[in-house]
Design a protein that fits this description.
It contains eight helices and 57 strands. The relative contact order is 0.09. About 5% of the residues lie in helices and about 55% in strands. It is mostly beta strands. The chain has three domains: about 80 residues, Phage tail protein beta-alpha-beta fold (3-Layer(bab) Sandwich), CATH 3.55.50; about 130 residues, Immunoglobulin-like, CATH 2.60.40; about 650 residues, TonB-dependent receptor, beta-barrel domain (Maltoporin, Chain A), CATH 2.40.170. The strands form 13 sheets. It has a 22-stranded antiparallel beta barrel. It has a five-stranded mixed beta sheet with strand order 6-12-11-8-9, with helices on one face. The chain has a five-stranded mixed beta sheet with strand order 14-21-22-17-18, with no helix packed on it.
Length: about 900
Amino acid sequence: MTARGQQHNLLNLDIKEYTFSEFATLVNKQTGLQIYYDPDMVSELVVSLAADSITVQDAVERAVAGSGLKVSFWNNGYLLLPDEQLIETLPDYDSQFQEKQEDDTQALTYGEQRYLKGRKSDVTETLTIGNPNIRENGKVRISGKITDMSNGEPIIGATIFIEETKSGAATDLQGYFAIVLPRGKYNAQFASMGYETGKYLLDVYSNGRIQIAMETAPLTLEEAVIRGDRQMDIRKKDPGLEKLSIKSIRAIPMMMGERDIIKVSEMLPGIVSVGEGSSGLNVRGGSSDQNVFYINKIPVYNTSHLFGFFPAFNSDIIKDFSIYKGHIPAEYGGRLSSVFNITTRQGNKKNFSMHGGLNPISANVTIEGPVIKEKSSVLISARSSYSDWLLNEINDPVLKNSSAGFNDFSIYLDHHLENTVFSGFLYSSSDRFDLGDLNSYTYANLGGSLNMHHNFNNLLRLDVAVIGSRYGFQTTDKQNISTAYTHGYDIDHFEFRADFMQTINESNELSFGINSIYYMLDRGSVLPFGEESLRRVNELGMEKGLENAIYVSDKIRVTNWLDINAGFRYAFYAPLGPKDVYTYQENLPKEARYISDTLFFDRNEPVTWYSSPEFRFSVNIRTDADGNIKLAFNQMSQNLFMLNNTIAIAPNTQWKLADYHIRPSRSNQYSAGVFRTIPATSLETSVELFYKTTSDYTEFKDGADFLNNPLVETEVLQGDHNSYGVELLLKKNLGRINGWFAYTYSRSFVQVNGDALWEKINNGRKYPSNYDIPHVLNAVLNYDISKRITLSGVFTYQRGKPVTYPVSVYQVDDIPVIDYFERNKYRIPDYFRTDLSLTIEGNLKKDKFIHSSWMFSLYNATGRKNAYSVYFLSERGRIKSYKYSVIGVPFFTATWLFKLGNYASQ
């Protein structure tokens, strides 16, 4: 009996993390067939396999895939041998032909012998690169593009690995890569997370290009983690870089059932939320305005809907999400703490598709498809809320008469030529909120970018982008009739950037470029609202600024165990006219009564110039196969900051440019870490230390008022800010139970100690910053009950934020005055929250018209009344403190998600 005769023995399997001996026993019980093997050869094999009606031979081959073991039918069973199969039939034999073949083999060159010996049995295709008639001397330059076979979309971070040279490359945001090789024949492996690994033989003659289409990995394969993006590998990623997979974003429970990439990032080490119902993050002890958020290169100045309860980005269109908080590449600048870079998907170039979601508060839909098949595509996303019905159900007269809502819209268009990709992206979001008849807020983002990606030759690429962005708000405060006011504000951001990428050789990649940003800020006018308002008209004025930078960066693989990334960025900035600048008397406070003169600047005339040389440097040292040590040094400057007395980014937060009096802030950051994987347990671990110093840090005087005083320099002081800490991460990627634990210990201190008494805060003594949170512990746990059902939990603990308490009340001319203790001497109560979610997928059939799933979320499952802030009221001559909680009860949400096509379709 042959193996072919056993095809009627079919298996139905759904197993996870079985040992091979358990798997063999299961096969024997179902079919009666025996598997013969050496136990030592399979001692480290773990089998996870889900398939219906699979043959025994196919099941065994999948179980041993990648182990080097070959499967042969033998003695009414299956035999496992290392790297060879049993010969079932003898080949035709001709002694004279055999002798001739042996003679020919001896005459082969070394390269030809390597070709015959090196070609793997699972290589499916030979790719000829260049012209066989051209004999290149030295190295050959190869460029290529890797795309998704199903929709033609470029794959970001896919890798090419050359087995003979142990070298490789990764694709950029447009799916392109470049590599340098000597002329010859090579086994190449193309891999990316979620795709079938492709193996090809490269027959390299001269400079040339290739294109690879990768197929999505089918669901019936055994469980595996394919690290296509090198930055998803904890050992290879840059120091201080965090990347989130779309799978992680989808699994974590959220309050309103919306997948929120910003909230997910709060679960990572070194990143802390400013609080519930608020927008903004504190990264490594920095303030919220020290972070910049890009979506397809468009800066977004407010990243949330409804005061932080909803994300400003639709996660369904996101393809890549990177957070730079340690080593920041030289191409980025303008912020001191971090860069959040979001790249959206391109549209499907082969077929039309649609997916979306629905929950009790909002709905979203995404539509994509080809404009010109295989060449052009469009992706459209829209969301809207309908939350007023929920406010009407609340038993509170103010909230019952309130109204809130948001909507956002984005569209992505692209067109591919042979060497050039043109693309455009438009993003718009708006919010409104009316708190009874007390306050009303409207705020909106609007942005667009036009991009061109061009390949000059095999090794030189260019990205050019023209970008525009606007953030604006309108606030009306009607709480007190006599002081009611309305205020509008706009910030415009126009940017041009050109980024070049040059591959020097197989171990050296050079990047260089320029960018220029033109800022226009209309701080607006504070106007009285209503006939009874006594508020005076206050013109806050307009500002302009020009920020330019050039940069160069070089990634060098010095040896197999040492990688160096060195960069330099030179930035220069000027506030521009027209502007009237007041000067103040020397040795006196900057106050309106001490103005001594006025300087007049014409339109677009530089008021002053600031320059900032910034060095960036990182080292990745491979200690062994499973571990690395990483070191980094980073210099940054920032010309833009928020005028805000709170730690959060409120909808009516004003942004302010550095000017004649207020200097740009500058920082130096040092970091060092140890990163390791534990293959036997599929665990990743890291310990990273950081220390950051900031000069000319902007801090606000006690009682600073930015609505009634247009002279901002009279309300702020500049000093020093230092932060340091350690970040710990333990992450499990495989198995039914997966997730991570992240712990951060960090301290953040400010010192404003000018020469004069009025140039000091806290009498010149160092004090904790508003975001000094020593201990933060986050845990994310996912339990895959089955392929269709996943239970997830998030557990968050934070040490209470600093706060300044009043200590006494005294009378001055019969007016009560509150006396406060040292700044940020005390802390509000600690924060703890538990969130749970249950995701239920529809059936996983391959061919179906629509797939849907349900997500049930329980936010703040323990109902803890966490303090967002503590405030004080004077009642009957005594000061009483109160704790303000945003969400103090469990909050349940059910969300229905759908997509046209099967589970794996986009």
